[in-house]
Amino acid sequence: xxxxxxxxxxxxxxxxxxxxxxxxxxxxxxxxxxxxxxxxxxxxxxxxxxxxxxxxxxxxxxxxxxxxxxxxxxxxxxxxxxxxxxxxxxxxxxxxxxxxxxxxxxxxxxxxxxxxxxxxxxxxxxxxxxxxxxxxxxxxxxxxxx
Length: 146
Fold this sequence. Notes:
Shape: globular
Structural class: alpha+beta
Order of helices and strands: HHEHEEEEEEH
Number of domains: 2
Strand order of the largest sheet: 1-2-3-7-6-5-4
Number of strands: 7
């Protein structure tokens, strides 16, 4: 067997397997992220690996991207909702930004303020809300100070 072929074969097999398993496996292995979608809050509560108490009860079309690294807290959430955020979310100056971008999500760098809801920062999106975690200590402190 040709030495070049012997060295190239495992790489070609890996590329072939990734193409068969789809983008999800590729994102998980290469970009260290996983994306999930949920029709509504009930589906999110049943299947999401993220706690987000700020999500309104009427939320639909929920997209969540999380890290695949063990013990990583990074997440972004985009959803549709006509409801306001909970009362314990405070509008504060934005110091943080999400780890990843989601299609159709607004650009967090265009806003000066966000709503700090615990460890998450949330901003308005076209049809609802866009949030990320972790936020910054400055945002959490400003929210706590009221």
